[in-house]
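Design a sequence for this backbone.
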């Protein structure tokens, strides 16, 4: 009773200040420099920094279509189709899916020579670059408003796998009239696939081949000490952010993106290169300065706090498992007190893994464990370059030496 009176009396001003901070923090983090192209032009920004997917592709003479896919639970996803430049399309269509902080832009922002989306198109494939729920291109829902309804953000990669990816696969198959698709995922785009193929094993029959760049499944050897330290407290951190009104973080309209965009424009190697070094193991000089600068305008496309929490749970549990809702929530959702593991023995479609030797987020030991549990592994490719890290798979100077030929060869073999 004394404690209640003490807090409610002498420290009432502190409590009031905390309440004010909870109201202030979302405003601070949501503040951003307006997306004023005139300002960026006056500052001589490379226009590739701020052009959207369609504008980028059209600039480089690639025709595109914008499609909208509605998931079973009402989310509206945007998928960009890059039309092949060949009279006769090769094989099955290819679906591309990006990582956690990204969008479909990551597959083309390196330009026509090194952008995987363009490269596949030039090789006569029908390319569909998807966006998972909540990012800058897929921030819509049939009933929920992402700006007003916290329930909109109640998802992680579990929902990406259970709802988003199946909806995109079915849409592409229906649009093309073909019975299968190919799939290429990067980072969390790989996590989404493995959750789908284990939760909905019937979808394995719809996959001709899946290619996984920097696969993120097991995080036992995760290489960022600070995040490993924070992982056991991730549920508490998520609750604090939710209470502060931050169920969405690192979005394009928030301050973090503006800082990234402007700092990468003026100091791509010093700032963005260093940021990638700390978070992914990036080796300076292995990605062109211009590509780093352009990437700064396209990263931080929006993510739910639950998505970050789910990855934190994987680090803490050292298991590839569904979201831990707490004992009462787990009993309600799964019928058991602890979240079940994803059953990788159900991933029966052909899988190609491609891993870098200097990737903090996708360490070789963890990828090897994943490889050992896949019943239809085509190959576990370790890039023969000791500097290869997480984003080199998409933007590296040497993608044509170490990566793209293998991807094209494997897809060609499975689609001939």
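Sequence:
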């Amino acid at each position: 009773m004394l404690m209640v009176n003490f807090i409610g009396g002498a420290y009432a001003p502190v409590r009031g200040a905390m309440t004010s901070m909870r109201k202030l923090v979302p405003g601070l983090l949501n503040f951003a420099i307006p997306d004023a192209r005139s300002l960026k032009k006056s500052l001589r920004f490379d226009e590739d920094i701020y052009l959207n997917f369609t504008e980028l592709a059209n600039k480089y003479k690639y025709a595109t279509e914008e499609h909208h896919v509605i998931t079973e639970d009402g989310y509206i996803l945007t998928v960009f189709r890059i039309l092949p430049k060949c009279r006769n399309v090769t094989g099955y269509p290819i679906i591309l899916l990006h990582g956690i902080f990204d969008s479909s832009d990551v597959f083309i922002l390196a330009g026509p020579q090194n952008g995987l989306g363009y490269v596949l198109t030039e090789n006569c494939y029908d390319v569909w670059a998807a966006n998972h729920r909540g990012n800058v291109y897929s921030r819509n829902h049939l009933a929920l408003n992402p700006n007003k309804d916290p329930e909109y953000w109640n998802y992680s990669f579990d929902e990406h796998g259970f709802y988003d990816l199946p909806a995109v696969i079915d849409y592409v198959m229906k649009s093309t009239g073909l019975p299968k698709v190919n799939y290429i995922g990067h980072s969390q785009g790989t996590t989404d696939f493995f959750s789908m193929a284990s939760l909905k094993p019937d979808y394995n029959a719809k996959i001709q081949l899946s290619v996984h760049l920097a696969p993120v499944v097991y995080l036992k050897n995760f290489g960022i000490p600070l995040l490993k330290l924070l992982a056991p407290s991730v549920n508490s951190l998520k609750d604090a952010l939710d209470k502060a009104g931050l169920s969405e973080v690192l979005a394009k309209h928030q301050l973090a993106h503006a800082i990234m965009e402007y700092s990468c424009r003026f100091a791509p190697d010093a700032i963005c290169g260093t940021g990638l070094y700390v978070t992914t193991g990036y080796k300076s000089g292995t990605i062109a300065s211009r590509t780093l600068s352009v990437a700064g305008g396209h990263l931080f496309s929006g993510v739910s706090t639950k998505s970050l929490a789910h990855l934190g749970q994987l680090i803490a549990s050292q298991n590839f498992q569904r979201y831990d809702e707490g004992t009462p929530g787990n009993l309600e959702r799964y019928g058991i007190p602890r979240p079940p593991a994803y059953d990788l023995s159900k991933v029966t479609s052909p899988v190609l893994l491609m891993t870098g030797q200097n990737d903090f987020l996708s360490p070789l030991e963890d990828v090897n464990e994943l490889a050992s549990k896949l019943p239809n592994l085509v190959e576990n490719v370790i890039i023969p370059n000791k500097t290869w890290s997480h984003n080199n798979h998409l933007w590296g100077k040497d993608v044509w030496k170490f990566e793209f030929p293998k991807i094209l060869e494997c897809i060609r073999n499975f689609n001939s």
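The chain has one domain: 64-254+302-415.
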